[in-house]
C-alpha cells in the first residue's frame, strides 16, 4: 500500500478527513493535516490537540507495523487559511473568500482573490467559479496550483 493511501485509510478510519499530506525530501518528515468530516456535529469546534494526538498515536502504530521509515511526524489542523485540495472542498466552501494561484496565468495574472462560487462541470472539465468584485472567473481545476481560504477576523 502506498504511504498516502495508508495515511488516508488510517485518518478516515478514526473519523477524520485527510486534508493534505506532505513529505520532505527522502520522506524524513511526514506532515498530515486533518479536519472534521463534513456533517460532523462537532465541526464547529475544529480540531483539538487531543484529536491530533489520537491521529498521531495511531499513525505511529501503523507505521511501526508497516515498517515506514521516518524521523518526524507532524499532525495538525489545516488552520483558518485551510488549503482547498479536493474537488469536494470547492463545493463545501462555496461562499467563502479564497486566494487562488494558477499554474498557467490567465492573461498576465496568476493570483486571484475573491468569493468562491463553487465547482461546475463544463464539457467534462471541472471548473472552479470565483467572483472577483463584479467579475466571475472560471478556472479549470487542473490549472489551480494552490487555493486557500481567506480567514475573516
Could you outline the blueprint of secondary structure elements for this entry?
Layout: H1 3-13, E1 16-23, E2 29-36, H2 49-66, E3 72-76, H3 87-92, E4 97-106, E5 109-122, E6 125-132, E7 135-140, E8 144-149
Helix pairs in contact: 1-2
**Which CATH architecture of the largest domain is right?**
2-Layer Sandwich
List the uncertain runs. none
Shape: elongated
Mean pLDDT: 91
Question: Your description of this structure?
Answer:
- There is one protein chain.
- By secondary structure, the protein is α+β, with helices and mostly antiparallel strands.
- It folds into two domains: 3-76, GMP Synthetase, Chain A, domain 3 (2-Layer Sandwich); 87-149, SH3 type barrels.
- The chain contains three helices and eight strands.
- It has helices at residues 3-13, 49-66, 87-92; strands spanning 16-23, 29-36, 72-76, 97-106, 109-122, 125-132, 135-140, 144-149.
- The chain has a five-stranded antiparallel sheet. The chain has a three-stranded mixed sheet with strand order 1-2-3, covered by helices on one side.
- Helix 2 (49-66) links the parallel strand 2 and strand 3 (72-76).
- Helix 1 packs across helix 2.
Amino acid at each position: 500500500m502506498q504511504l498516502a493511501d495508508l495515511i488516508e485509510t488510517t485518518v478516515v478510519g478514526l473519523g477524520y478527513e485527510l486534508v493534505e499530506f506532505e513529505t520532505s525530501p527522502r520522506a524524513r518528515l511526514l506532515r498530515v493535516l486533518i479536519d472534521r468530516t463534513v456533517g460532523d456535529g462537532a465541526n464547529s469546534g475544529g480540531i483539538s490537540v487531543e484529536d491530533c494526538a489520537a491521529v498521531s498515536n495511531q499513525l505511529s502504530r501503523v507505521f511501526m507495523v508497516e515498517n515506514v521509515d521516518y524521523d518526524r511526524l507532524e499532525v495538525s489542523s489545516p488552520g483558518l487559511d485551510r488549503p482547498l485540495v479536493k474537488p469536494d472542498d470547492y463545493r463545501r466552501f462555496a461562499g467563502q473568500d479564497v486566494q487562488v494561484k494558477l499554474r498557467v496565468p490567465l492573461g498576465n495574472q496568476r493570483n486571484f482573490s475573491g468569493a468562491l462560487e463553487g465547482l461546475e462541470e463544463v464539457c467534462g472539465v471541472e471548473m472552479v467559479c470565483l467572483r472577483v468584485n463584479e467579475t466571475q472567473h472560471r478556472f479549470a481545476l487542473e490549472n489551480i496550483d494552490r487555493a486557500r481560504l481567506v480567514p475573516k477576523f
